[in-house]
Amino acid sequence: MKLDVIKLDGDKAGDIELDEALFGLEPRADILHRVVRWQRNKAQAGTHKVKTRSEVSYSTKKIYRQKGTGGARHGSRKAPIFRKGGIYKGPTPRSHAHDLTKKFRALGLRHALSAKAKAGELVVIENAEAEGKTAALAKQVANLGWKRALVIDGASVNEGFLNASRNIEGLDILPTMGANVYDILKRDTLVITKAGIEALEARLK
């Protein structure tokens, strides 16, 4: 498939032939869902913690005599049935991550790129270079109509563009190796540089 290449000022800079294996697939929601779920679970901290009966701070004195009260034979106020007692089978620190093969993760990225291309939300720019001036870049972004955009550059990100984009709401930039399904689907517009296209084709072939 062929797509126009533009500059940051909106002028046309030729066109580019996109690989059908990366940008021409029929997007599958089940594949995208599995990869996004893998990403989010892996990112989850898992630091939730409750105190068990061995960890709560309470007196160890027997709360009342064993016999003659007509009540249950309790020995500890730390029991889970009491207020401020220990929690039974509550959450403890653990990893929420699960395995997903490299081939499947790469397939998910191909489907995410194809989904953006099919929806008409893919833009190819000649390069992502700026002089580090936020106001100038913000004006260019507004003129291009990018409200929530992700820019994917080549192997490294231009320092000036990165500095200029830091204070622009809704604009994020990643190197090719940082490209992932969740960030691509979360944004309304996917912007890729020509160097980013070449690097993605090399990475996913």
Counted up, domains total 2
Q: Write the H/E string, N to C.
A: EEHHHEHEHEHEH
| CATH fold-level topology of the largest domain | Ribosomal Protein L4, Chain: A
Low-confidence stretches: none
**Shape category:** elongated
Helix content: 25-40%
Structural class: alpha/beta
Number of strands: 6
CATH class of the largest domain: Alpha Beta
What distance lies between the first and last C-alpha atoms, to the nearest angstrom? 17 Å
Architecture (CATH level 2) name of the largest domain: 3-Layer(aba) Sandwich
Radius of gyration: 27 Å
Corresponding CATH superfamily of the largest domain? Ribosomal protein L4/L1
Mean pLDDT: 93
Largest sheet: 6 strands, mixed
Strand order of the largest sheet: 2-1-3-6-4-5
Number of discrete helical segments: 7
- Strand coverage percent: 5-15%
Describe the secondary-structure layout:
Blueprint: E1 2-6, E2 12-17, H1 20-23, H2 29-43, H3 102-118, E3 122-125, H4 134-144, E4 149-152, H5 159-165, E5 171-174, H6 181-186, E6 189-193, H7 194-204
Parallel strand pairs: 1-3, 3-6, 4-5, 4-6
Antiparallel strand pairs: 1-2
Helix pairs in contact: 2-3, 4-5
3D structure, described in words:
There is one protein chain. Helix 5 links the parallel strand 4 (149-152) and strand 5 (171-174). The model has no long low-confidence stretch (mean pLDDT 93). This protein folds into two domains: 2-45 and 96-204, 3-Layer(aba) Sandwich (Ribosomal Protein L4, Chain: A), CATH 3.40.1370.10; 50-90, no CATH class. It has helices at residues 20-23, 29-43, 102-118, 134-144, 159-165, 181-186, 194-204, and strands at 2-6, 12-17, 122-125, 149-152, 171-174, 189-193. The chain is of the alpha/beta class and 205 residues long. Helix 2 (29-43) packs across helix 3 (102-118) and helix 4 (134-144) packs across helix 5. The radius of gyration is 27 Å and the shape is elongated. 23% of the residues are buried. The protein has a six-stranded mixed β-sheet with strand order 2-1-3-6-4-5. The two termini are 17 Å apart.
